[in-house]
């Protein structure tokens, strides 16, 4: 009976220790994928149903104003920024952000307005990270408009590995 009980305890301990290794390995793999985002990126195109008017990230600017925008992502401290170039009816914007990748593919970010502290900002955006390679990735947003789901795909291309 003692041997059976001891065997059960050892099996349970082995199972727990192996699952801890597996979880640590998964966390390391996720971290490695996340670190691939480090650097400078250009938002090269935005795909969506053009029957809808899209104004991303509450900037009050048309989606096409974001095409050509520059994004800097620094995963080491979860910070970054995006810059809209302006011109025509598009505003010129430099917006600091705090971001993270959750569960390997949920890209969350919040805008840090001048004079605000990141921890005081409680609202942000959650998009799905897709098609990530060393030199490109896409962020997918699903929004409701006029009772219909609209899928918006933001396509990014690496411009450099340089970060501040």
List strands and helices in order, with pairings.
Layout: H1 2-35, E1 39-47, E2 70-74, E3 79-87, E4 90-102, E5 106-111, E6 125-130, E7 136-145, E8 148-160
Antiparallel strand pairs: 1-2, 1-8, 2-3, 3-4, 4-5, 5-6, 6-7, 7-8
Q: What is the string of SSEs from the N terminus onward?
A: HEEEEEEEE
The total of helices stands at 1
What distance separates the N and C termini? 64 Å
Average per-residue pLDDT, rounded, comes to 82
Relative strand content: 35-45%
Number of strands: 8
> What ranges have pLDDT less than 50 throughout 5 or more consecutive residues?
1-22
The secondary structure category is alpha+beta
Instruction: Identify the overall geometry.
Output: globular
**Major sheet description:** 8 strands, antiparallel, barrel
Measured as a percent range, the helix fraction is 10-25%
If strands are numbered along the chain, what order do they take across the biggest sheet? 1-2-3-4-5-6-7-8
**What Rg do the Cα atoms give?**
21 Å
What does this structure look like?
- The protein is of the alpha+beta class.
- 21% of the residues lie in helices and 43% in strands.
- The protein contains 1 helix and 8 strands; from the N terminus they run αββββββββ.
- It has one helix at residues 2-35; strands at residues 39-47, 70-74, 79-87, 90-102, 106-111, 125-130, 136-145, 148-160.
- It has an 8-stranded antiparallel β-barrel.
- It is globular.
- It starts with a helix and ends with a strand.
Provide a short characterization of the protein structure.
The protein has 164 residues and is an alpha+beta fold. The chain is built from one helix and eight strands.
């Amino acid at each position: 009976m003692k041997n059976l009980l001891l065997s059960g305890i050892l099996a349970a301990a082995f199972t727990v220790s192996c699952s801890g290794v597996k979880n640590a390995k998964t966390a390391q793999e996720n971290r490695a994928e996340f670190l691939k985002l480090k650097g400078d990126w250009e938002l090269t195109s935005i795909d969506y149903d053009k029957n809808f008017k899209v104004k991303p990230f509450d900037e009050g600017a048309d989606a096409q104003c974001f095409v050509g925008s520059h994004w800097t992502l620094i995963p080491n401290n979860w910070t970054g920024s995006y810059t809209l170039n302006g011109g025509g009816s598009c505003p010129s914007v430099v917006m600091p952000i705090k971001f993270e990748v959750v569960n390997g593919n949920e890209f969350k970010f919040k805008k840090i307005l001048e004079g605000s502290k990141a921890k005081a900002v409680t609202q942000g955006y959650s998009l799905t990270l897709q098609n990530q390679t060393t030199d490109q990735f896409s962020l997918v947003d699903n929004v409701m408009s006029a009772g219909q789901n609209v899928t918006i795909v933001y396509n990014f291309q690496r411009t450099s590995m340089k970060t501040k």
